[in-house]
Amino acid sequence: MKKLIVAFLVVISVSFDSQKPEAYDVGEWFKFRIHYGIVTAGYATLEVKEAVKENKKVYHAIGKGYTTGMSRWFFKVDDTYESYFDKITNQPYQFVRKIDEGGYTKNQEGFFNQDKNSVLVKDYKKKTEKTFAVTENVQDILSTFYFLRNHPDINTLKVGESIVVDMFFDDETFKFKLKYIGKEDLSTKFGTVPSMIFRPLVQSGRVFKEEESLTVWISDDDNKLPLRIKASLAVGSLKADLDGFKGLKNPFVIKVKTK
């Protein structure tokens, strides 16, 4: 189970798009069930609150991932990611990362200076502070998710084309690249939902089999809600499915509802 919850919080950020109206607002919350077949391995949640930074109201996104049941006996995971970002520009002001994965822990906060293209990372476990140079308009892991949900170019993508976002994570800036695969009517616990399919390009190696080992389905409506994430791992595979939601800004389009 090592790093699986973290991986899903990263790839969940491919759920995106929409021209106006905005895809989300304060009060949105949803939950994923992460599972091997019928066995539940854990859950991940994301919600949007409101906070004040630099004397202005901003979005405060909170993402959590945790193992449950027998999986928790074998490998305990409790991860929390937070982001404070501008309601207009989506530029992040601050991120929080607190993780515990089988005893491996991190406790960090990052403070962005978008004017100077830098981020000050405070590591409370190591008791260190370090400033990193970043690219213009860089995002953190959670602000990337919300930035992409309102991205203006998604509707013009053709099958096989990609979109790239600069994202700061683990003390470095990298290109988060997503390939558009096509559309599908997806069967979910809520019914048959029109969806868009994307593949984020990930690093092959210990966790993932190949660069394109992840597939993500998002709702093809104004919410651009993540519906399913499927991963082919170095050992086996697993899925994460939308398990619950509330506070959506726009109607959730379902072609055929589950009886």
Q: Any overview of this molecule?
A:
The protein is mainly beta. It has one domain (4-257): YmcC-like fold. Helices cover 9% and strands 53% of the residues. It has 3 helices and 15 strands. The chain has helices spanning 4-11, 69-74, 141-149; strands at 29-36, 39-53, 56-67, 77-86, 92-101, 104-113, 118-123, 128-133, 162-169, 172-188, 191-200, 214-219, 226-232, 237-246, 256-257. The protein has a 15-stranded antiparallel sheet that branches. The two termini are 34 Å apart. Residues 13-19 and 203-210 have low confidence and may be disordered.
Question: Which SSEs are present, and which pair or pack?
Answer:
Elements (H helix, E strand, L loop, with lengths): L3 H8 L17 E8 L2 E15 L2 E12 L1 H6 L2 E10 L5 E10 L2 E10 L4 E6 L4 E6 L7 H9 L12 E8 L2 E17 L2 E10 L13 E6 L6 E7 L4 E10 L9 E2 L2
Antiparallel strand pairs: 1-2, 1-14, 2-3, 3-4, 4-5, 5-6, 6-7, 7-8, 9-10, 10-11, 11-12, 11-15, 12-13, 13-14
